[in-house]
Design goal:
This protein has 321 residues and is mainly alpha-helical. Helices cover 71% and strands 0% of the residues. The chain contains 16 helices and no strands. Helix 4 runs antiparallel to helix 6, helix 4 packs across helix 8 and helix 9 packs antiparallel against helix 10. The two termini are 25 Å apart. The relative contact order is 0.09.
């Protein structure tokens, strides 16, 4: 099955004929041809993805007005409203906030239009986008030798995990910068994968823009950039691919981050210094809090173990990453 992002919504993959002599000589080619020939209606894929998105949005927007605003939400909204309405900066926010003015401006605008409920509804919509991007990225990561029903079933399960797990819902229900970072980052990854295929130039550039938006939303996202860039510049891809990936993804992303750092150098350095000395929220038992007591982490590990025995080496590396 050809994915919607690869060849368009009206494309139907036709079965590939394999001669009996070729099938007997190469059974793997025959099985691969049968897998590629499996057809699944486009409307079924759209309905499935739409169901996942609606579920994600519904769970996040449910009872958004039942909790009062907490400190992080108030700081972001107040910053945005001051910037929009009075052209003023709130409390030197870039010195202690782990993101740029991007989310405060979005939150402030949403608050002006719809109050706190409007901010949280925007966050819920971004969470739904992240869920959709997760499902699409999963479908594109799966090898083409896998038949369409298995490919899209796996993609929908990945989307449902993002839609239903409590950590994602918790982040998606409150108006913080995590929602923009998650939606932009996963959308960029969905454009980049599968890494084995030559990428279109505009897809690479769009992915770089989305990853930069994720960085502007939450600086910590940048820890993934070196790994992604180095993988796209692997020597085995060839000189042509190296030039294309560098010119349309690596260099634009690096240049954008460098320009931002140069423009806000003093704020970034102050934030770095502040981060090393801030211990108010430091956990006394981080391994227990973030690993042993996290039921969702263990559920994900159990799901991964189900298919790890039949996975290839590449698939296992993808799963671990």
């Amino acid at each position: 099955m050809t994915t919607l992002l690869e060849r368009g919504p009206n494309t139907v993959e036709m079965p590939t004929a394999v001669s009996p002599s070729r099938a007997s000589a190469n059974p793997e080619a025959a099985s691969g041809s049968r897998a590629r020939g499996t057809v699944i209606p486009t409307w079924a894929i759209v309905v499935g993805l739409l169901g996942v998105v609606v579920t994600a949005f519904g769970l996040r927007v449910l009872m958004v007005n039942q909790q009062s605003a907490y400190m992080d939400e108030v700081a972001q909204i107040l910053t945005g409203r001051l910037l929009i309405q009075e052209r003023a900066v709130y409390a030197y926010i870039l010195n202690w906030n782990y993101g740029s003015y991007l989310w405060p401006l979005m939150a402030g605008a949403a608050d002006i239009v719809g109050g706190l409920q409007g901010v949280r509804t925007l966050t819920a919509a971004l969470g739904a986008i992240m869920t959709l991007a997760t499902a699409v990225a999963t479908a594109r990561l799966i090898p083409r030798s896998v038949d369409a029903p298995r490919r899209w079933t796996t993609a929908l399960v990945a989307g449902l995990i993002m839609a239903l797990f409590p950590t994602a819902i918790g982040i998606g229900r409150f108006g913080t910068y995590d929602s923009v970072a998650g939606a932009a980052f996963m959308s960029g990854v969905a454009l980049l994968v599968p890494f084995r295929d030559p990428q279109r130039r505009w897809s690479l550039l769009a992915a770089a823009v989305l990853l930069f938006v994720a960085f502007l939303s939450k600086y910590v996202v940048a820890i993934y950039f070196p790994v992604i860039c180095l993988y796209l510049m692997m020597p085995y891809r060839g000189r042509k691919a190296l030039v294309r990936n560098s010119g349309w993804f690596v260099l634009p992303l690096a240049l954008a981050c460098a320009v931002y750092f140069s423009a806000f150098r003093e704020n970034m350095l102050f934030l770095l210094s502040f981060s090393t000395s801030y211990t108010d929220l430091q956990s006394t038992a981080p391994l227990s809090v973030y690993v042993w007591e996290r039921i969702d982490v263990w559920v994900l590990a159990a799901i991964a173990l189900v298919g790890i025995r039949g996975a290839s080496r590449t698939q296992r590396l993808v799963g671990l990453s």
